[in-house]
Design a protein that fits this description.
The protein is α+β, with helices and mostly antiparallel strands and 202 residues long. It has one domain. 18% of the residues lie in helices and 33% in strands. It contains five helices and ten strands; from the N terminus they run H-E-E-H-H-H-E-E-E-E-E-H-E-E-E. It has helices at residues 28-34, 62-66, 75-88, 91-94, 166-171, and strands at residues 42-50, 53-61, 103-111, 121-125, 128-131, 145-154, 162-164, 177-184, 187-193, 199-201. The strands form two sheets. An eight-stranded mixed sheet has the order 5-4-3-6-2-1-8-9. Strand 8 (177-184) and strand 9 (187-193) form a beta hairpin. The two termini are 24 Å apart. This is DUF2796 domain-containing protein. Residues 118-144 are annotated as: Disordered. Keywords: Signal. It holds the Pfam family ZrgA.
Length: 202
């Protein structure tokens, strides 16, 4: 995927916990320190909207999305990998984008050593699939991650009023929270979203 908006460095903002209070005592420095860490139940999402271009990058432990972090060892595991891959290929649904925005997926890339064989890393542009360099078979610490990156072209970006992750939480129930860094018309903001507080206004 060619670099664009998400190639810009994100400044780690204190997360706006008024967006997602879950009854725990959170500390801003703990939240900032946890960004990028491999923590089961937690995923990270960078979002950038500039003109008609919308880019999203989701990074998550494989356990959040697949339910496991070992190599597929059964037909059931293989079926779960295929299901997860299919769901990740539907960003318009996963991120709750309104039909009125008229967004088309121009590029998407999935990376993850557990996504299976030739699918460990691939890029698709305008509906065409092409292989990319796969990731190493496993991380040195035994954990496995999945990254999904998307570029969308939206003819009516003004219709995108919020990021709504309810469907993502429903499809991947092991994901308990998503730390979001967003660049939009109102500037940059950060928030932690949960199944009970899954919406962030642009």
């Amino acid at each position: 995927m060619r670099p664009l908006l998400l190639a810009l460095p994100f400044v780690l903002l204190p997360l706006n916990y008024s967006q997602a209070q879950d009854g725990h005592d959170h500390h801003e420095h703990d939240a900032a320190a946890s960004l990028g860490a491999h923590e089961h139940g937690t995923a990270h999402l960078d979002v950038a909207l500039d003109g008609t271009a919308l880019e999203l990058a989701l990074h998550s432990p494989a356990a959040n999305l697949l339910g496991f972090e070992h190599a597929p060892a059964s037909a059931a595991d293989e079926a779960q990998v295929a299901r997860t891959r299919q769901q990740l290929e539907q960003p318009l649904v996963l991120f709750g984008l309104p039909a009125a925005a008229a967004c088309d997926v121009s590029e998407q890339e999935l990376q993850g050593d557990l996504l299976g064989g030739a699918h460990a890393g691939y890029q698709r542009r305008d509906g065409d699939a092409a292989p990319s360099e796969p990731e190493p078979a496993a991380r040195a610490d035994g954990h496995s991650d999945i990254e999904a990156r998307y570029r969308l072209d939206c003819r009516h970006p003004e219709a995108i009023q919020a990021l709504d992750l309810r469907t993502l939480f429903e499809r991947f129930p092991a994901t308990e929270r998503i730390q979001v860094q967003l660049i939009g018309p109102r500037g940059q903001q950060g928030a932690e979203l949960t199944p009970d507080h899954a919406r962030l206004t642009f």
